[in-house]
Amino acid sequence: MRLRSLQIILWIAATAAVITFLAVRWWPATDDTATADSAFMPTFALADSEGRMRTTAEFRGKFLLVFFGFTSCPDVCPTTLSEVAQVMDDLGSAAGSVQPIFISIDPERDRRLGLDDYTKAFHPAILALAGSEEDTKSAAASFKIFYEQEADTSSPDGYTMAHSPSLYLIGPDGEWLRQFTYGTSAAEIVSDLLTRL
Amino acid sequence: MKHFLLATTLIFSAPAAMACETVTIGDLTVEHAWSKATIGAGRPGVFYVEIKNSGTTDDALVGITTPAAGMPMLHETVVQDGIASMPHAMSVPVPAGQSVQLAPGGYHGMLMELTTALKEGDSFPVTLSFEKSGEVTVNVDVLSLRAEGPDCADAGQ
């Protein structure tokens, strides 16, 4: 009889453990996805071309159009920069509410080549940031983007960068709003932005 | 005099329209060769072009050379699983009866070690080497940094 009640207690304990495990395993996960849109607040703290530290906090109140790239990239990055420049032109008087930010994932070389000349040639509104390796890694991790240096003898200096080419839209309170995948037209981005401004 | 003026105008406006000129070699038609202005010469330039193969034999673009760059190479932009990378392309297939484009977001020539910065309105020659058809030289128009392609009436853009 004692054995039997011990068995019952053990069964209850085991069932409770399973329920607890499942609850822990699944509930927070569903919660996360349900609140991710409003709770995800990616941040950066990176130096601009003059060495001043710029952080996400100083841009509260503005929409941020953030993208990662490197200036020795001849195809993808100029295409994205051109799109962003076109977006800024097409926003007209609403452009003041949007801050486009180019974050270098190749900061050492980009600082050497001159960062500001490059992005400003596309559009003067684009703010270029190139932090330390460490700060760049933190920013990328915070935005959940991937980048990696790849050895490549057919590229300048023997390496190229693989990276997430999307544009990320951050809201005036610092919250993640959406991404525009590579190739999204300036017109589409503008019409999305105009619904929010 | 009128004709002289017209001719002069045509000559001076020719560079802007060069990207719209067509060069042929064997069954291949090469047109819409263009590039983008660069900021300085420290970063690579880019080369885009359209190649049509009206023959019955597959061909391939296997290399490019130009006096404008010390190390011109063929690359391909590949976006896979949300990551963009740019592998070196050993060759760009030009199948029989088909057209291929070296265009933004795909195959492109990467012009490394530029001899000078590329300025909008400039043009420079690029020699394309094909596996079967041999070599052909096209004049490449340097368009603005933000250009999406040459403005030709028949451009496949």
From TrEMBL, chain B:
Residues 1-19 form the signal peptide. InterPro entries: LpqE-like, Lxx211020-like, PCuAC_sf. PROSITE patterns: PROKAR_LIPOPROTEIN. Keywords: Signal. The keyword Lipid metabolism does not apply. PANTHER family: BLR7088 PROTEIN (PTHR36302), COPPER CHAPERONE PCU(A)C (PTHR36302:SF1). This is Copper(I)-binding protein. The lineage of its organism: Bacteria, Pseudomonadati, Pseudomonadota, Alphaproteobacteria, Rhodobacterales.
